[in-house]
Amino acid sequence: MGIEVNGKTLEVDEEGYLADLSTWVPEVATVMAKEDGQELGEDHWELINFLREYYEEYQIAPAIRVLTKAIGKKLGKDKGNSKYLYELFPYGPAKQACKYAGLPKPTGCV
Amino acid sequence: MADFETPSFREYPTIPVLQEGIMNNGGPFVAKPAHNEPLGYPGELVDGWEDKAVAKLGDLASRYRSLQVFLDSCVKCGACTDKCHYFQGTHDPKNMPVGRQDLLRKVYRRYYTFAGKYFPKLVGAVDMTKEVLDDWYTYYHQCSQCRRCSVFCPYGIDTAEISMAAREIMDHVGLGSKYNNEIIVKAQTVGNNLGLPEPALVDTLEGLEEDLLDDTGLEIKVPVDVHGADVLLVTPSADFFAEPHIDGLMGYAKVFHAAGISWTLSSYASEAANFSMFIGSYENMKKQAERIRKAALDLGVKRLVVGECGHAWRVAYSFWNTLAGPFDFLDPNYPVPQHIVEFTHQLHTAGAIKFDKEANDDKVLTFHDSCNVSRASRMGDKPGGQYRLPRDLLRASANKFVDMPRDTIFESTFCCGGGGGLLTDDLMEVRVKGALPRMEALNHVIQENGVTHMAAICAICKTQFAKVLPYYGMGMDQIISLHQVVGDALVLGAPNE
């Protein structure tokens, strides 16, 4: 399985997550969002970029509380809550946003 | 969003009209070699799997007498048929507990009973074929091992044990589910289901301490790897990561703070959950339990307390002693292990902590009994403590509490729909449909009593409800952690200025 990005086919797993994190380019998020019928605005990108930075440092996606706090700092307190994150990513910020950011899917009871 | 229909609420419970094969969906994603091999299983479906599966079935039936009795003793009385939430929600006859059991039983009969060997057609015995294996993979991953059916079976046949055995057999021939096996590998290597490494855990907990300081003005700690602490708290890693779980974790921290008891988490054993139970693997279950023993020894703690996780409590309460015991190095004045609910309850009874009930006046609460706590363990020193203690705590910390109908709680509780290793997006249809009976019961108390929130003490239940409540027209934030309610009402004293 794969997705077409910039004329190249990037491998994804059965759930649509990028098989190789290092193949990520911003267009990956755009293409994935398009498949879900979504358009990415500035706030989406803030989130995606934060996820990638956090992953680089810790090798895991941030906990939801870490994410809402960081977004609250960047975009204003009224946006630093999970309700807003679900507005941005209706399939769930942890899962949908991770997918767009090229991160592996969080596993466990989450 | 979904390519299936969410069931509608029924006016009263009815026996579903059968829809044969409606859930024959091929099962969850299959585990890859990287998920299987570290657990001691073949990477993929092995050659000659038919004979190997039959041999493994014989091995399990001879080792576990209970399994053989369950396979031998069904008289097809039908008492179990409508007791399964998945059958009620899906109408698929293979989701009747007896239908599910028979998938394994018919192979057992063929190879291990006199009648089945010589007159298979007379006794419904069949050969081990690919069709049978596919059915196993599909329908043993539509069982949450909740054991509700076994409460109603006059012989006490435990479908959960049959389902665990079936998964164990499949793993042994190289056919495992990705969700479960990937998680078990992470728990055995990183130390938790999430794969949350120590630096990320430490960073997350520091963030929580900041939040607690903001909320209360107090320096409430969420300590990790503190040598010589009195209590080691082992909790599901979802408590660090997800909502509403994290509010429960902050509730535990407040209780420890208010009672002045030193405690710690462990970065080595940062997981209470033990998914190896879901796949019936005693060997792998043991490995995870031993991590907890080692952490308790290394940290030199006196007590072991288990956080809000349903099946973890079953493993801790019923299996830890044989898997990783004896725990004779712990303080014998306290139960080993102790549930966080029992821990908080004891402190409250002794007057060591106090609640301000009015703090929860914005809520009308109900409580969801988790399967593994209700039907596979106890809590406290009296029978029924697993039902009474959490309710005592809710009633002590909130003014408004109402129970759901009697046939949906206590030993008859309905599964959330996501237990037993099914909490994965690729099983969303069965999860949503299986939640029907619980959603109906919740809806009942919402309509009749104005219930606003349902409290739970299981990470799987919390995640599952947050996901499925919206399918039934309710809010994802209506599910909360019991220790959130407790923490909100806890009298913490004046902030340090």
Strand content of chain A: 5-15%
Q: For the report, how would you describe the main beta sheet of chain B? A: 4 strands, parallel
Oligomer: heterodimer
> How many runs of DSSP E, i.e. beta strands of chain B?
7
**Low-pLDDT regions of chain A:** none
Structural class of chain A: mainly alpha
Rounded radius of gyration of chain B (Å): 23 Å
**Unreliable parts of chain B:** none
CATH class (first level) name of chain A:
Mainly Alpha
Radius of gyration of chain A: 13 Å
**Integer tally of domains of chain B:** 2
List the secondary-structure elements of chain B in sequence, H or E. HHHHHHHHHHHEHHEHEHEHEHHHHEHEH
Helix content of chain A: 40-55%
Intertermini distance of chain B: 50 Å
Strand content of chain B: under 5%
Structural class of chain B: mainly alpha
- Helix and strand run of chain A: EEHHHHH
